[in-house]
Predict the structure of Amino acid adenylation domain-containing protein.
Amino acid sequence: MTILDGLLELEALPELKISSAEIDRARKLALSRAHEVDLADAVITRVERIAAGGDRPAVRDEVRALSYAELAVEARRIAALLAREGVGPNQVVAVGGVRSVTVIAAFLALELLGAQYVPADTTWPAKRVADVLAQAGAALLFNTDRGEVTPVLAEGAAAAGVRVVRAHEAAGVAPWEGEARLDGLAQPRYVLFTSGSTGKPKGAVVEHQGMVNHLWAKIVDLDMTDRDVVAQTAPLGFDISIWQMLCPLVNGGQVHVISDEVSYDSVAFAAAVDGQGITIVELVPTMVRLLLDDLAAADAEGGLAGLRWMLATGEELPTEVARRWLLEMPQAGLVNAYGPTECSDDVTHHIVTLSDLELLRLPIGTPVVNTDLYVLRAEDDGWYACEPGETGELFVGGHGVGRGYLGDRERTCDAFFRSPFGTSLTSRLYRTGDAVKVLPQGALQYLGRVDRQVKIAGVRMELGEIEAVLQRHPSVGAVAVVVHDFGTAR
């Protein structure tokens, strides 16, 4: 079985119930942005091209540093090992272990083989690891740890009946030969599992063109060059980990993997950013607040002096946090980024300015490259386009829209539609479940959820999923889950 067996073709998706007159209005009111970017190469292809033009530093963690040439060779050794284990095109391979340069090499190895990446996060309980591996139909679990396999990964793999292959087995293996197996821009590239209201996680499948388009969106909007160094801080199960691992490698920059121990210690984190010349960081707003608090308490003057950009994502950015950043860290621009995993991560960016602070809620911005955004409201007889200032639900079209949920027809058809808008960028349309409105200056403002999904510390959670799990216990007769905000926890 391959990943394609678990995906719906475009023709199988439902049509959006909208009249022809409203289609025309929605097209005129849409926020759209087309931009020419190179989607035809795999990331490993660009890595090898950069290496051939004169080697340079590529990736680093607390133990190892690899140049572009060394990274390419390691990726090809891993590809050879996985091919020997029977991995081929359109098979899903789970990659799990402590975040490291080996994880990045493993992702590139899967690109070479035309296989798909699914992270197995060491912070998950073993039951979730088993659920993800089983639902993904993982051919194997590639463990990147240097020591023993993390217990939750070993237990989860055993429960799912998935064999484990260790990264150290690639040492001495002759590098895999051949070009990257890229079977068109619509080839699935990775699967990320998000919270699901039925009690089981749902696997969002992202295509090659969506992933690469998002990498270029960051390069274009942040004006990234080969001098930039990006901090890789996100857990592997979090969608921003993808761009943090790969984006700098597209244009000759560097990735620095920062451990959890350092990431959760604000003063140590700032020292790592300064010491490694890191220029771009992305954190959830809660962590941005803690970073500002701890640096102020430590009286750490001059910290983050070389930082060019701080991106805030994963939860709403409070105006008060933005105000503090602009005043205390004027050397680094602040970007409010928004986007769902199902659409290859961020679909909007907004560079926060002092004038934005007059708003009760900050804008989430305008579309990233090759993205169409529609604000629609539901009525009994269908969907209607919203005028600027009116509140509606956000729908996303464009290159970034993914293929749906792996092996889950019902939930795919609840959220993904055949686009009625007929633009060159759009074939599928994703219903976000987020309430938004278009501000007078043309940027979107996020107003909350239209369903029961919440975000806690940047992690998406379905209250229904938690209820479904609690309901399984024989002593629980009925359950209701609600969220209370008791302020910032430390």
